[in-house]
């Protein structure tokens, strides 16, 4: 048994240490370290392979957890943190680790699944936490509301489009319009996935009644439009290069309208003829974007 001013975990790590000690999953194991700071070690009932560590005095990770005095039954222990209020310093360090990004993605993916199936208003943080396999408090560590989770989803979507724009920028063998339509199949594959359609329509519906969500979508649209217009201008498509010009903006908006319309129409007509649609979009944009040709 380790003693003194250190918080400790089992040397084997993960859930196995609790099992080796003869403990039942779902119970919160406590170890008095001899200093004001105490670390709780929880064996998770959902079968997660990791141990959850936190200071005593907080609510249990799971409602049915109980606290035991198991000093005589703990396995061999090794130190994991320094004496004193480890929370502030350790938390600052943890936020910079890649694990934090992994946890955020875990929450975002769980929320996306919930929003698709149950809608924005039908989804609670508790429900997201259940799907993500973490406590509601853990989720609030990364996101303060469902709106901030939606913001992360929108930025993820924005990043997908940015990847396509990068591919478009690198394709200099043909003119801009032809290069864009080389990427059109991949673009349609992305935007017409049923899971993506259900999610984006739900977010759009919420934006119609939630000013904060509307602002998130509008800012994202503005950033992508500016980036696309700058790329088009660099490739000689001057008719759509100036997003501050009303005519240029209207021409650029045609593409957004066509793609948004396709997203909605894919619900009504799942077996849409993509190749014919792509040819029609190209013909429309050639007329609108190149009015003098």
From TrEMBL:
Keyword DNA-binding: yes
GO molecular function: DNA-binding transcription factor activity; transcription cis-regulatory region binding
PROSITE patterns linked to this entry: HTH_TETR_2
InterPro entries: BetI_C (IPR039538), Homeodomain-like_sf (IPR009057), HTH-type_TetR-like_transc_reg (IPR050109), HTH_TetR (IPR001647), Tet_transcr_reg_TetR-rel_C_sf (IPR036271)
Ranges for domain HTH tetR-type: 101-161
Pfam family name, one: TetR_N
DNA-binding residues: 124-143
Keywords associated with the record: DNA-binding, Repressor, Transcription, Transcription regulation
Domain of life: Bacteria
Keyword Cell cycle applies: no
Protein name per Swiss-Prot or TrEMBL: TetR/AcrR family transcriptional regulator
């Amino acid at each position: 048994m380790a003693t003194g001013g250190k918080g400790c975990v089992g040397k084997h790590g993960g859930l196995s240490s609790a099992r080796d000690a003869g403990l039942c999953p779902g119970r919160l194991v406590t170890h008095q370290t001899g200093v004001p700071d105490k670390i709780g070690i929880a064996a998770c009932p959902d079968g997660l392979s990791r141990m959850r560590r936190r200071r005593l005095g907080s609510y249990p990770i799971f409602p049915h957890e109980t606290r035991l005095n198991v000093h005589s039954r703990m396995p061999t222990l090794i130190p994991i943190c320094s004496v004193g209020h480890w929370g502030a310093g350790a938390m600052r360090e943890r936020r910079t680790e890649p694990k934090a990004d992994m946890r955020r993605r875990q929450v975002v993916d769980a929320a996306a699944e919930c929003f698709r199936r149950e809608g924005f208003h039908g989804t609670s943080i508790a429900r997201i936490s259940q799907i993500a396999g973490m406590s509601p408090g853990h989720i609030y560590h990364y996101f303060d509301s469902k709106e901030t989770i939606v913001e992360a989803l929108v930025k993820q979507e924005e990043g997908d489009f940015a990847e396509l724009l990068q591919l478009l920028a690198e394709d200099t063998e043909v003119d801009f319009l032809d290069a864009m339509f080389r990427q059109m199949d991949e673009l349609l594959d992305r935007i017409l996935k049923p899971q993506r359609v259900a999610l984006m329509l739900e977010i759009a519906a919420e934006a119609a009644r939630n000013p904060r969500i509307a602002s998130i979508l509008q800012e994202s649209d503005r950033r992508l439009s500016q980036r696309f217009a700058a790329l088009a201008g660099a490739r000689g498509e001057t008719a759509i290069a100036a997003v501050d010009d009303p005519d240029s903006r209207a021409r650029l908006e045609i593409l957004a309208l066509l793609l948004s319309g396709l997203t909605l129409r894919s619900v009504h007509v799942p077996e849409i003829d993509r190749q014919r649609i792509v040819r029609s979009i190209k013909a429309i944009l050639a007329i609108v974007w190149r009015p003098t040709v």
